[in-house]
Amino acid sequence: MRTLFRMPRAQVLCRVLPLIVGMSCAPRVDPSVLYEGDSAYSHITVRDEGANRCLYFGRTDAVQSCIRRDAPDHAVFEYTQLMFAGLALTPAPRRVLMVGLGGGVVSGVFARHLPDVSVDIVEVDGRVVELCRKYFHLSDRPNQRIHVGDGRTFVRRAPRGEYDLILLDAYLGDSIPFHLMTAEFLAQVRAALAPGGAVVANVWDGSALFDAELRTFEHVFPGEVYVFRGAGNAMIAALPDQPRRSRETLLRVARESAAGRALPFDLAAEVRKYDPTTSRAGDAPVLTDDRAPVHSLLRRRRG
Amino acid sequence: MRPSSTALVVAIFVAGAMSMGLEMLGSRLLAPYFGQSIYTWGALIAVVLLALAAGYSAGAFASRRWAGLRPVGLLLLVGGAWVALLPAAAGPITDRFTAWGERAGALGASSALFAIPVAAFAAVGPICIRLKVEDPRDAGLWAGLLSALSTAGSVVGTLGTSFFLIERWSVRGSLLVGGLVTAAVGLALAVVERSGRSRTDAKG
């Protein structure tokens, strides 16, 4: 007992905690872990896995993003390319807003292949921005501004008609920010879109939450919603105040959009994932600020 | 006339349930403006704790002058009415604080929206304790038992909102109904004492 009193507090804690909760203060010796720590928002891990480098939020079973270390343009996950299906709706965006930085893969495509496009990135977690700079090839460039803050606050303050393309990529695992899924938020997104502009949201399509988000999109963008379905994720997109586009028109616009650019993937192949038959989400609720049962929907299978 | 124990039990339980229920629902009112970060939660919890401390202190002094069911009822009436107004008032009020930034804004908006009703609910406790204590040797007994009852109410308020009301029903509906029910209970308590007193007066 006397020795315990002579130790610095932190050491006492390290002696006592394992006895109570099985925690340990011993440093991790796993050399593949480049970073592990807590930010104001989550427990973050950066880890090398074979040729990939991955970013994890929360426990290490929820991967946020991965890149190939030797080929940053290689899409480890399909969704980073599928998001560009938005170019079939708005082929030549000049001003883009990304809500959610993730592993910086999408912003990297803009930086390397669409450098003329002005990109605003809003990421809630400043630590994620630091880690992307250090480990995920995120670099500063004249046409890119990174804002640390809440996506909804940023969109609400954005001037009307500011953006040609808004990419929403802030929904992951258990930490679904409900206030970025509601009809009120999508109405703010709609107001921030320039004429002819489009919004694309990356949503995991394995739960009833997808149906509810689709229904919420249909509510705010009636008859203006397009779904591009990938293997696990799907893009819910909307093109407000424009004539409805057929599959053929989408493909034609995408080809025109890709023609003058050096995209690191086949845009037409992504746009072919357009799914006009997607069930229009029967009895799923429209999500509102007042009622957004995101967690119970996430635990329910799709209807 | 001494107030009935049932009335005191109801008052304390409702006040405890509303304090924590309001905190949980409050996080949903703030999220559209400040997100739902650790900052927002920290600000909200700090404001609720401060309001509890202020309410306990105010109730402590009030109990020496206004010991009766009527002040208890009035506190519930004011707190409940305030909560019932939040669905309409929270948006425009919170909006004014967004210019303060994430942390100061969440602190400011939490104070403006929740400090008054939480303080009112907290002030109920000391007055009820004062009403139960006849023998000073029982002071600790009643302070302990009624605090436990208030905390039991808070548990119901916490789980009821987080496990049930927010997901299955509606944030604004919960605030409106919870506030109106609390105000009605407060009004009933105030009226009960008044009629009780007039009866006593008539007898005397």
Q: What structural class should be given to the helix and strand makeup of chain B?
A: mainly alpha
- Which consecutive residue ranges of chain B, at least 5 long each, have pLDDT under 50? 198-204
Overall pLDDT metric of chain B: 92
- Mean pLDDT across every amino acid position of chain A: 87
Topology:
The complex is a heterodimer of chains A (303) and B (204).
Chain A: H1 2-6, H2 9-21, E1 33-38, E2 43-49, E3 52-57, E4 63-68, H3 79-82, E5 95-99, H4 105-113, E6 118-123, H5 126-135, E7 144-148, H6 151-157, E8 163-168, H7 183-192, E9 193-204, H8 208-220, E10 225-229, E11 233-238, H9 247-259, H10 267-271, H11 294-298
Parallel strand pairs in A: 5-6, 5-8, 6-7, 8-9
Antiparallel strand pairs in A: 1-2, 2-3, 3-4, 9-11, 10-11
Helix pairs in contact in A: 7-8
Chain B: H1 5-34, H2 38-65, H3 69-97, H4 102-132, H5 139-168, H6 171-203
Describe the overall structure.
The complex is a heterodimer of chains A (about 300) and B (about 200). Chain A has about 300 residues and is an alpha/beta fold. Helices cover about 30% and strands about 25% of the residues of chain A. Chain A folds into two domains: about 1-30, no CATH class; about 80-300, 3-Layer(aba) Sandwich (Rossmann fold). Chain A is built from eleven helices and eleven strands. In chain A, the strands form two sheets. A seven-stranded mixed beta sheet of chain A has the order 7-6-5-8-9-11-10, with helices on both faces. A four-stranded antiparallel beta sheet of chain A has the order 1-2-3-4, covered by helices on one side. Chain A is globular. Chain B has a single domain (about 5-195), classed as Growth Hormone, Chain: A (Up-down Bundle). Chain B is about 90% helix and about 0% strand. Chain B has helices at about 5-35, 40-65, 70-95, 100-130, 140-170, 170-204. The interface between A and B is medium-sized, with 20 and 20 residues.
